[in-house]
Write a structure and sequence with these properties.
CATH topology of the largest domain: Multidrug-efflux Transporter Regulator, Chain: A, Domain 2
Number of strands: 2
Largest sheet: 2 strands, antiparallel
Structural class: mainly alpha
Distance between the termini: 54 Å
Strand order of the largest sheet: 1-2
Mean pLDDT: 86
Shape: elongated
Low-confidence stretches: 1-5
CATH class of the largest domain: Mainly Alpha
Protein name: Transcriptional regulator, MerR family
Keywords: DNA-binding
Number of helices: 5
Helix content: 55-70%
CATH architecture of the largest domain: Orthogonal Bundle
Organism: Halopseudomonas xinjiangensis
Strand content: 5-15%
GO molecular function, one term: DNA binding
Oligomer: single chain
Length: 119
């Protein structure tokens, strides 16, 4: 099992259009057989398959794999819990919550700015 802080140490995603399973394995610090298993468990993950059933992952697939990896390895979710978390309901609630936090922070910063301008 990887250290929880390892996700932040993953290499940057190159500006390529397609990645092989080996490249994605290196970029996400996950073995290829785990990636193939996750394809079965997470409907959001569906790489393009070409000649000889070879998988080609796009940038959004790599980002999704990193999210899945973070949920499973860093945050301790089960496969079912991570699937539910990514399915939308909770993700939508999280987005709404974060938007509210951002609005509140902006309001507080504007108030601080007003106080600083007054002095």
């Amino acid at each position: 099992m990887l250290e929880p802080t390892h996700n932040a140490e993953l290499p940057a995603i190159p500006g390529k259009r397609y990645f092989t399973i080996g490249e994605v394995s290196d970029l996400c610090a996950v073995k290829p057989h785990v990636l193939r298993y996750w394809e079965q468990e997470f409907p959001q993950l569906s790489p393009v398959k070409r000649r000889g059933n070879r998988r080609y992952y796009q940038r959004q697939d790599v980002i999704m794999i990193r999210q899945i990896r973070g949920l499973l390895y860093d945050q301790g979710f089960t496969i079912g819990g991570a699937r539910q978390r990514l399915s939308g309901d909770e993700a939508k609630e999280d987005v709404t919550h974060f938007k509210q936090l951002i609005r509140q922070t902006i309001t507080e910063l504007e108030e601080v700015l007003q106080v600083l301008k007054a002095h």
